[in-house]
Amino acid sequence: MLVGMLATQHTAWGQTPNKPLRHFSAAEIGEDTLHAATLLPADSMKVDSMDLRDNTLKAVADTTGRHHKRDWATWKPNTKRALWLALVLPGAGQIYNRKYWKLPIIYGGFVGCAYALRWNNMMYRDYSQAYLDIMDSDPTTQSYNQFLHLGTTITPSNMSRWQEIFRQRKDRYRRWRDMSFFVMVGVYALSVIDAYVDASLSEFDISPDLSFHFAPAVINGSANGFSSNALRSTGLGMQCSITF
Questions:
Q1: Are 162 and 204 a contacting pair, CB within 8 Å?
Q2: Is residue 20 helix, strand or coil?
Q3: Alpha-carbon distance 120 to 221, whole Å?
């Protein structure tokens, strides 16, 4: 009887007697797992993973964009390096200064000057030979005939006039050839100066307070100090304001 009372008190204290362990079958485990998967759909897990990936890519893109903008905003080229690059290779200074839109202008100027130089030099040589042929007394050298219009012939009566014409054309094309060369040198010098000045002005601070505005305004004649009645009229005009 005493043993029975002690067992009852032991159970009341919260210590349950040992029970045999229950073994679950594979079918029961599969049903429970399927039930849990039904309660938590796979689409929600997929959406969460896709949102996490999109947020990560967006954060990386924002960080890269800020770094790229900061790099361009704080880019300060070296003036000496820009000068030497422009001297060695035309357009290299503009590439170093990151002003790529100037390259078509520079190389377009070089290509145009080179074409004009070649064309004028070719015409100068042709007219020089024609002038030499028309000035000599050899009848077999008549290269000047290719420059004459159809039906035009050179006779002793108009020989002096055609000699002067060929001399003027020869000198004209020679002058244009020399001018093309100097223009090409000018384009080269301009590219060097532009690269140096652009690199120098990269450190020039432009304050956002500097502004120049045009706006329409009502102009009152009496407000401007005019005392005459004829000048006390109101009209429309333009007003400019400078902030610095």
A1: no
A2: coil
A3: 64
pLDDT tens column, 193-242: 999 999 988 766 555 555 666 677 777 755 455 555 544 566 777 777 76
Q: DSSP characters for 77-140? A: --HHHHHHHHHHSTTHHHHHTT-GGGHHHHHHHHHHHHHHHHHHHHHHHHHHHHHHHHHSS-TT
Q: List residues bridging with 156 in a β-sheet.
A: none
Cα-to-chain-centroid distance, residue 124: 41
- C-alpha span between 61 and 53 (Å, rounded): 12
Tokens of 221: 């004649």
Q: How far is it, in rounded angstroms, from Cα 146 to Cα 165?
A: 14
Q: What is the CA radius of gyration of the chain?
A: 46
Distance CA 77, CA 79 (A): 6
- Please state the separation of Cα 97 from the chain's center in Å: 11
List the single range of 26-30, 119-123, 202-206, 225-229 with lowest mean pLDDT. 26-30
Helix, strand or coil for residue 241? Answer: strand
pTM above 0.90, yes or no: no
| Angle CA 51–52–58, to nearest 5 | 85
Distance CA 193, CA 86 (A): 9
Q: What is the mean pLDDT of residues 187-194?
A: 96
Q: Which residues, 6 or more positions from 98, have their beta carbon under 8 angstroms from its beta carbon?
A: 72, 75, 77
